[in-house]
Amino acid sequence: MAERTLRVAVVGGGMFFDEVIGSALMDFERYGIAPYLGDIGQGRLAREVADVAVEFVAIGTHSPRRGTAERICEWYREGVPSSGVRPFYGDCVWEEITEEAQPDVLIVATPDDLHYPPIVHALAEGLDVITEKPLCLQLAQADEIIAAADAAERIVSCDMHKRYDPMNVKLFRDLLPRMGEVNYVRAVLEEPLEVSTEVFKWAARSNPFSYVGCHWTDVVHHYLGVRPVSVHATGQKNLLASWTDPESGEARPIDTFDSIQVKVTYDSGMEALYVNAWINPADFEGPVNQEIKVFCTRGSAFMDQQDRGLRYCITGEGSRTTNPFFNGRTPAYERFDEMKGYGKDSLTAGFSAIMRRRFMGADLDELAPEYPTAASQRPTVALVDAAQQVADANLAHTRAGRGSPVTAFLGGGGIEIRDPLA
Hints:
CATH superfamily of the largest domain: NAD(P)-binding Rossmann-like Domain
Structural class: alpha/beta
Distance between the termini: 63 Å
Oligomer: single chain
Number of strands: 18
Helix content: 25-40%
CATH class of the largest domain: Alpha Beta
CATH topology of the largest domain: Rossmann fold
CATH architecture of the largest domain: 3-Layer(aba) Sandwich
């Protein structure tokens, strides 16, 4: 074992573990993070962390019924035969993992509404954390996480990988500084129907803005340095609220928004409209539909995922576009190819910060600009929390024939719901 080893555990073995986390961990354990630092502008640090080993020690999921954790361990050992990763199960599986596996880092890939409990537990036990987005769903929880991380002097890195999308880096770092004042932003991210009806069993405990809209809000906040002051949100509950399983014919209503539109006014006077859904039919050509339009006083820019994707058509599979920027594969000499893409880059940034903090004594304030901190996620969580409340209230008013008059004011630091008809 290397003298400097980072022991890593994961809670949650679903889609994002399969698509990104598992393969990234396999690369980190086989080669360290040094080979990937140049992708996030930290190549200068490669020598400093080259000897730090990453060891995947535990995977925890909710129920042993499907044997998900065991299957993950078996798959992982195919790429890392020496791995000692162990499976764990339970309602609060993170508690057993921290006690028995004794990790240094907990990666939280649980459902949206279950990020908060394992994060605060891990911080109380002295662990660093890398969590999937959003940080949490309630502003009060975000404040608790931020305070706990500060008190423990530990890192909480949120996987906001769209910060690292090369198209966004080009747009916000290169083009926008030459385009004058930003007047408005329109950002779209729409997920396939299978996400809300099949992949996730917890869709009723979240909504499409919380799940994916937070990516765009983080990009806007991070690169433009703006803070939200006012929110108006509306949404539609049609398809999912009356959902019937197409195979069994069984009625299985899912009480969540099909689609949601969140309009935000920022402290700069800029407006943004975030449009999100998770009912795109299977016939849609791409895994997601995503785009962003930025309109400024001296120019505008538009990025569409399908326009920069790889289009293909295969008999029996239909026409599709794919996004190799997110999680492509790089041919390797060993059996398992290496993963590349901005999905991995965000994880690399979190690991880099944790290693520099633990093994080099780097100051938290010094590290903060180089990864998505918990504190940086407070404005996004405020929007997630406020949008849910406002959209719920406006839907009730709309159904009663009263329009959508409800807004939220965030300028005071908290959430003030303003309903003129209350």
